[in-house]
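User: Sequence in, structure out. Go.
Assistant: Echoing your sequence, followed by the structure tokens.
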Amino acid sequence: MEIDQTDAPTRQRVVRSILENGPSTAAALAERLMLTPAAVRRHLDQLLAEEAIEAREPRVASTRGRGRPAKLFALTETGRDGFDQQYDDLALQALRFLAETGGEVAVKAFAERRVAFIEDDFAGVMAAHPEFSPAQALAAIFTDQGYAASTRDLPVGEQLCQQHCPVSHVAHEFPQLCEAETEAISRVLDTHVQRLATIAHGDGVCTTCIPTRGVTS
């Protein structure tokens, strides 16, 4: 199939929308990007052919209507490659060398230093935005660092959602990076938080449950 390169900017908008908003249906993408359903499906077909996205069945089937629930389109690792991951090979080599020469202690120290921005910025963002909940402040901090983060309400608190992870390929081999993030979040909130999913381990989004104070799972 011949690819029309003039459509590339619009395809990038589709990819960016999935990156920032998480797995999306074709209808949601069409509405969000103000495109016709036919145009969106044409771009989705091309992105599927390029293996930049994958189609997933919704986890919970809709009870409305008689047809099958609409599929969700999510980014693959190939699709994420265009976003801030050009230096993954170099980063992996550096961390492997660090692990070989300094061991687990050195890798853990590096991971903690890399996420220092969480504790450095949290108080300032909360002071500048008193209308933010702690989870919303964290979402703003992570978004500023390229994580495309947002929050959603849960019955027991809030969920921090990171639609993108700039270091997901590296974190797949070095989970200390994810662990350091979770620990830093727990420290600034002074409460236990639970990492439910990570992009580094194949999930479509990194999610962290932040319980309301006094509520335990």
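User: And one key feature?
Assistant: The chain has two domains: 5-80, 88-211.
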